Amino acid sequence: MIGDRTTPGRVIRSVLPAEVEQVVALHARARATYYPDGVPQDGTDWLAAWRNALTRPDGRVLCVVEAGRIVGLASFRTPEDAPRDVVKLYQFHVDPGRWRSGVGGALHAACVEEWRADGRRTAVLDVHVDNRRAQDFYRRQRWEPAPARPGDHHLRMRLALPAE
Q1: What is the DSSP string of the chain?
Q2: Which of 13, 88, 119, 134 is most deeply buried (CB count within 10 A of its CB)?
Q3: Which CATH superfamily is domain 5-160 in?
Q4: Which residues sit opposite 127 in a β-bridge?
């Protein structure tokens, strides 16, 4: 496990269970930016989902904190039925007010550092097809799109994590 990462004015660390409401609020703000017709109301209890993510023994949730406020977060774990050297990035959000400030790049670098230290060789994610900003971000981080799945609303992407 990698320890806290600190730079002037910014800390990257694990999310604390007491911060779940901040996480849910950031998640909602970020998701609202890439659904052209508004965030779908699919019945998901995001408070419960994030509480579960924070307490899973097989997963991690990292956050970026600036001035005492969570401005970025990433949730990842080994996906079901996948080899141990594969990690899935389930959620990756930066507060829209902090886009293009280096928060996303710093958080992504922290994730990659942790994945490599944990012996991961491949990372995967699904990104909403309408979320062009996120797709462009992931491509800049060297993620590659996987073959499209007809009718899917998400694009699958992969990142090779060669040993350093």
Answers
A1: ----EEETTEEEEEPPGGGHHHHHHHHHHHHTTT-TT--------HHHHHHHHHH-TTEEEEEEEETTEEEEEEEEEPPTT--TTEEEEEEEEE-GGGTTTTHHHHHHHHHHHHHHHTT--EEEEEEETT-HHHHHHHHHTT-EEPPP-TT-SEEEEEEE----
A2: 134
A3: Gcn5-related N-acetyltransferase (GNAT) (3.40.630.30)
A4: 155
Q: pTM for this structure?
A: 0.87
Quote the tokens at residue 72.
Answer: 């970025």
